[in-house]
Design a protein that fits this description.
The chain is mainly beta. It has helices at 2-21, 121-126; strands at residues 30-33, 38-40, 44-51, 55-59, 74-77, 79-89, 107-112, 130-131, 153-154, 158-159, 174-181, 194-206, 211-217, 224-228, 240-242, 245-248, 262-267, 276-280, 285-288, 297-301, 306-317, 323-335. Strands 6, 9, 10, 12, 13, 15 and 16 form a seven-stranded antiparallel sheet that branches. It is elongated, with a radius of gyration of 33 Å.
């Protein structure tokens, strides 16, 4: 018992001693300078750094590495586009897609701004649906397997400004594919065709920064089916929505069910068109870690001319995670070779 008490007291003393050995985090020192203020493109720029910090990060001042956006997200204006892939399989009715009269086509695309969001036939029929079908490419031949992406036809990416009325761009929008198959008539030889929609993408793209932001994809668009004329259909021929496809199916045989017209709407959830592309904050390049040796210089080369506000951040961190940062900056100008005079060192600085 006496030995146990002695051990516990010793361990407690050791822990107290360890805790006292940790110092509170202190503010780091930091100085940043350059030998001159003007440099050529592709010329190594040497930054002189004096710091006792545990961590150092470098911001060149270029897009993507600019301290001005270290705590502020970069948001750029882009343009929104819509694209998808479709295919037809089996039967003869797919050929109606080639008709000039859009109302005769098997698969059509619409949008609505007054759909109630109630996925019933009555709500669909009450809504105003505006035609988009002719703005996109659809298959001109039949696939052997419409469930295989490589056998589908890309619609092309169309700017939403060409699709939606300007006043509708600020409203929640529902997109809908409508599949209509006529009742089978042996005299007409109009055997039924299946259809698929895959690779649906509604996205915003900013060419300036080569960045894309998703608005909705095949798996996130919230597709729900509303059907008419499927009352006699067996489960084997029911349309369905999966994470990668809308599958429009129906009985292609000669039964009483096959003789009935089928209509299936696949309607998205409400979508808000946003043309902003948010690429997030800029991050510094770590040039010294806790375990690495102190540094006195850092060299960087600029590819493009411009005026750059260069920052270095210094940070000290203690064992409890407390952090104190300090920043230093210098402004430099980078010019094309031969476009400006470089500031020369003064007397005795060569």
């Amino acid at each position: 018992m006496k030995k146990s008490i002695v051990f516990m007291v010793a361990a407690a003393a050791l822990c107290v001693g360890c805790d006292k050995g940790f110092e509170k985090v202190s503010e780091p020192t930091l100085e940043l300078s350059t030998p001159q203020t003007t440099y050529f493109t592709q010329e190594p720029v040497v930054f002189d750094i004096a710091s006792d910090a545990n961590f150092l990060s470098f911001y060149s001042g270029e897009r993507g590495n600019d301290y001005a956006y270290a705590h502020k997200e970069r948001i750029y204006e882009g343009e929104a586009f819509l694209s998808f892939n479709t295919a037809f399989q089996a039967g003869a009715q797919w050929m109606r897609q080639l008709e000039e009269d859009v109302e005769k086509k098997v698969l059509r695309l619409f949008y609505s701004t007054d759909f109630s969001g109630e996925y019933t036939l009555e709500a669909v029929e009450r809504a105003t649906w505006k035609e988009l079908t002719t703005q996109f490419e659809f298959p001109t031949s039949r696939a052997s397997n419409a469930k295989v992406l490589s056998q589908t036809t890309p619609s092309g990416a169309v700017n939403v400004k060409e699709l939606f009325a300007e006043e509708d761009l600020v409203k929640p929008i529902y997109l809908a594919f409508c599949y209509r198959i006529e009742g089978y008539d042996a005299a007409l030889g109009n055997s039924r065709s299946r259809a698929s929609v895959m690779n649906f993408e509604l996205y915003t793209r900013c060419e300036e920064v080569n960045a894309t932001a998703d608005i909705a994809k095949q798996s996130t668009a919230g597709w729900q089916l509303v059907t008419k004329g499927y009352e006699l259909e067996s489960g084997d021929y029911a349309p369905e929505v999966t994470s990668n496809m809308i599958w429009f199916d129906c009985d292609g045989g000669t039964t009483d069910a096959a003789a009935q017209e089928r209509i299936c709407w696949a309607i998205s959830s409400a979508m808000q068109i946003n043309t902003d592309v948010n690429i997030g904050c800029d991050y510094g390049v770590g040039i010294k870690s806790f375990a690495s040796e102190p540094i006195s210089t850092y060299t960087y080369t600029y590819a493009k001319p411009g005026i750059y506000d260069v920052y270095v951040t210094a940070a000290n961190v203690d064992h409890e995670g407390s952090r104190i940062e300090k920043t230093a900056s210098v402004r430099i100008e980078v010019v094309e070779q031969g476009n400006a005079d470089i500031e020369q060192p003064g007397d005795g600085e060569w």
